[in-house]
């Protein structure tokens, strides 16, 4: 078949899953004996304090329970296991700071740090079942904070450092957090940005009485206002604490973390993950999708504020005793060769990043040939990964050729916050790759494509991506909202038992390979960041000037999609300079309400929005207008067709 790239023979020779026959054998085992299959993997890949006797309990479906009478501790699995299996002196983390300074910690040192911090948290009365919000940038301390929560059975909720005070406050309230772990400031691209000051602002917004402690990691030494009793430096909290900390042994279903993500309605959803099932898949996909080996230097460029930073920085790599690079900076500072330079510097062998980053670095290399990957020694690389959004074939090919030197398999990993780990991805030693396709589900993942009634569609025909059976690392609940969990992910229209991913997909007629065609709900993907259109609309209408707003995605060469907002003001429709000034004001408003990542790239003003006679906003028309195309669709149901002309014009 054309456009097919075979796994390099040298790679397959030592791969965990070396060929398609091995892949098919695993799939067949899962088909034949689902519980036996997962039970075996869970026994082989995790250390259990109390072994489980039940694999899967479906009695309260779709609230599934995995390995639920087993007990374990996630931080024990990620740290202590490495002290007992010869990895104690192995480098766990190579921290590459924004300015290029390098700090290394071994597994022994990381274990000690986590234990001291966990003891410090316990000394403040924090323990099993408490929720702790972590609002930090990329750092060894950020990962240590996550693992310390896991050690004492506290459920963490990491909030991405780019979210605003208001977004942080909403998450603190919803989670009912008892503590916030933060840093004085973060450093990005040579600039310092506040973190602790934003925590202060969030708590001052009100409703956060549950928060008793704010723990501050000193990153820059930048100005911090201490609120007595409540605030404590992380180093003071750890000072004098014992270097050992007895783990809290929790049931496999104990919530390890809550991570907020966007859905189709206005408020973010607190995706709740388990301990046992979640860790099993984070660890196993490190072995299967990344084929991790003891000598690898692994680097995932994600942030701990997103799920990728949970499964493929904090938990997966440590669970398998990997050496990983943690990167604080941005890909373009001090120049766009930063990623390639860092790979060369640390001899990175497995590199995992997002298509947006690849596309922006392609552009940068076109403008400035000195930052082209060919100027760097990337010979240490043996595997490349992509995550977060569809990768277009051009970007795939560039990545494969210019970064991977045509010798590294590219794993295009499709998954979601809710899935906990990879779902559909090539296996680097086995699966023939096709640029732009995430290929086949991992063994045991029963992905399928159905129509709107939940019926299977034939290959070659697009439809709705679903998963037919529960899997260990799946979302367990939406925090505080089981009804929303059920209606969002197991809708009655599809029969109530299929997991609805929220993406459209199509399978190839020849190969059965999956290609993701994008979200089918009102969720946008901007630079791999997931955002709800309703969330941005709510932020806009919260501005006193705004009467109504509709947000749509517009295809963007670099960021995948960009945000375009159509706004009706309470005052007369502005034009010229006035419109430009107001657009800027509203963009900054959204940054303050949600965070800079949610800023609309474009804002247009109209006297009204295109609506049907029943008052429904016709978003499909707005999508066409955002693209700058003229409307060829039927507009006969439109109440106010004249409005289209106004909205077609950029400010
Ligand atoms: O639309 C899919 C897209 O990202 C969504 C999940 O976003 P989030 O929960 O933030 O998790 C991102 C990191 C896993 C999906 O519903 N997506 C993710 N990976 C891919 C993708 N789309 C196409 N190809 C991928 N490899």
TrEMBL record:
Q: Name one GO biological process term.
A: acetyl-CoA biosynthetic process from acetate
Keywords noted in UniProt: Acetylation, ATP-binding, Ligase, Magnesium, Metal-binding, Nucleotide-binding
Kindly list the positions at which N6-acetyllysine occurs in this protein. Answer: 616
EC numbers on record: 6.2.1.1
Record Gene3D superfamilies: 3.30.300.30, N-terminal domain of ligase-like
Reaction(s) catalysed by this chain's protein: acetate + ATP + CoA = acetyl-CoA + AMP + diphosphate
Q: What cofactor does this chain's UniProt record say it requires?
A: Mg(2+)
Residue stretches making up the AMP-binding enzyme C-terminal domain: 535-616
- List positions binding CoA: 188-191, 308, 527
Query: Ranges for the Acetyl-coenzyme A synthetase N-terminal domain?
Result: 23-78
* UniProt superkingdom: Bacteria
Report the PTM annotation.
Answer: Acetylated. Deacetylation by the SIR2-homolog deacetylase activates the enzyme.
Which residues participate in ATP binding?
388-390, 412-417, 503, 519, 530
Q: Which GO terms describe its cellular component?
A: cytosol
The residues covered by the AMP-dependent synthetase/ligase domain are: 86-471
Q: Cross-referenced Pfam families, in alphabetical order?
A: ACAS_N, AMP-binding, AMP-binding_C
Report a single Gene Ontology molecular function. acetate-CoA ligase activity
Binding sites annotated in the UniProt record for Mg(2+) = 541, 546
The UniProt entry, under HAMAP family, shows: Ac_CoA_synth
Its annotated function is as follows: Catalyzes the conversion of acetate into acetyl-CoA (AcCoA), an essential intermediate at the junction of anabolic and catabolic pathways. AcsA undergoes a two-step reaction. In the first half reaction, AcsA combines acetate with ATP to form acetyl-adenylate (AcAMP) intermediate. In the second half reaction, it can then transfer the acetyl group from AcAMP to the sulfhydryl group of CoA, forming the product AcCoA.
Q: Which NCBIfam families match?
A: Ac_CoA_lig_AcsA (TIGR02188), PRK00174.1 (NF001208)
> Member of which family?
Belongs to the ATP-dependent AMP-binding enzyme family.
The name under which this protein is listed is Acetyl-coenzyme A synthetase
């Amino acid at each position: 078949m054309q456009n097919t790239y075979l796994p390099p023979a040298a790679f397959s020779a030592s791969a965990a899953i070396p060929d398609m026959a091995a892949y098919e054998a695993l799939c067949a085992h899962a088909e034949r004996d689902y519980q036996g299959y997962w039970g075996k993997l869970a026994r082989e890949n995790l250390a259990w304090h109390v072994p489980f006797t039940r694999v899967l309990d479906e009695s309260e479906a779709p609230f599934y329970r995995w390995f639920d009478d087993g007990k374990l501790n996630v931080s024990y699995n990620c740290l202590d296991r490495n002290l007992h299996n010869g990895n104690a002196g192995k480098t766990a983390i190579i921290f590459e700071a924004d300015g290029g300074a390098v700090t290394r910690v071994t597994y022994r040192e990381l274990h000690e740090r986590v234990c001291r911090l966990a003891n410090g948290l316990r000394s403040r009365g924090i323990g099993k079942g408490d929720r702790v919000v972590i609002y930090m940038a990329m750092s060894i301390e950020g990962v240590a904070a996550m693992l310390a929560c896991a050690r004492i059975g506290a459920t963490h909720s990491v909030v991405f450092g780019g979210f605003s005070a208001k977004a942080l406050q909403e998450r603190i309230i919803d989670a009912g957090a008892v503590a916030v772990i933060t840093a004085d400031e973060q450093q990005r691209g040579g600039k310092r940005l506040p973190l602790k000051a934003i925590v202060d602002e969030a708590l001052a917004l009100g409703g956060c009485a549950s928060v008793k402690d704010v723990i501050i990691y000193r990153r820059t030494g930048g100005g911090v206002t201490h609120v007595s009793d409540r605030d404590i430096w992380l180093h003071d909290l750890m000072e004098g604490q014992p270097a050992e900390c007895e783990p809290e042994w929790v049931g496999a279903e104990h919530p390890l973390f809550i991570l907020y993500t966007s859905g189709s309605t206005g408020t973010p959803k607190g995706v709740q993950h388990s301990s046992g099932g979640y860790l099993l898949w984070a660890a196993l996909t490190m072995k299967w999708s990344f084929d991790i080996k003891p000598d690898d230097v692994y680097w995932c460029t994600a942030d701990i504020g997103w799920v990728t930073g949970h499964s493929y920085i904090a938990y997966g790599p440590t669970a398998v005793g990997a050496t990983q690079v943690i990167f604080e900076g941005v890909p373009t500072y001090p120049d766009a060769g930063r990623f390639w330079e860092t790979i060369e510097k640390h001899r990175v062998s497995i590199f995992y990043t997002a298509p947006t980053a690849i596309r922006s670095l392609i552009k940068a290399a076109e403008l400035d040939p000195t930052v082209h990957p060919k100027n760097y020694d990337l010979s240490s690389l043996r595997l490349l990964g992509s995550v977060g959004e569809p990768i277009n074939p051009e970007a795939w090919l560039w990545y494969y050729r210019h970064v991977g030197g045509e010798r590294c398999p590219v794993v295009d990993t499709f998954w979601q916050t809710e899935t906990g780990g990879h779902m559909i991805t090539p296996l680097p030693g086995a699966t023939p790759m096709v640029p732009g396709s995430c290929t086949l589900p991992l063994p045991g993942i029963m992905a399928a494509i159905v129509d709107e009634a939940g019926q299977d569609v034939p290959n070659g025909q697009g439809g709705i991506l679903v998963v037919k059976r529960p899997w260990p690392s799946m979302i367990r609940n939406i925090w505080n909202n089981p009804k929303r969990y059920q209606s969002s992910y197991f809708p009655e229209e599809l029969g109530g038992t299929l997991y609805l991913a929220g993406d459209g997909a199509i399978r190839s007629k020849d190969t059965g390979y999956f290609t993701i065609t994008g979200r089918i709900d009102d969720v946008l993907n901007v630079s791999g960041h997931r955002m709800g259109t309703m969330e941005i609309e709510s932020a806009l209408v919260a501005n006193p000037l705004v009467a109504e707003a509709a947000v749509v995605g517009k295809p963007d060469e670099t960021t995948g999609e960009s945000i375009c907002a159509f706004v009706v003001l309470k005052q007369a429709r502005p034009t010229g300079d006035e419109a430009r000034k107001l657009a800027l004001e509203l963009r900054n408003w959204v940054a303050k309400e949600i965070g800079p990542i949610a800023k609309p790239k474009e804002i247009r003003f109209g006297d009204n929005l295109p609506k049907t006679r029943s008052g429904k906003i016709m978003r499909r028309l707005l999508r066409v207008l955002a693209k700058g195309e003229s409307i060829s669709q039927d507009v006969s149901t439109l109440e106010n067709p004249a409005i289209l002309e106004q909205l077609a014009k950029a400010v």
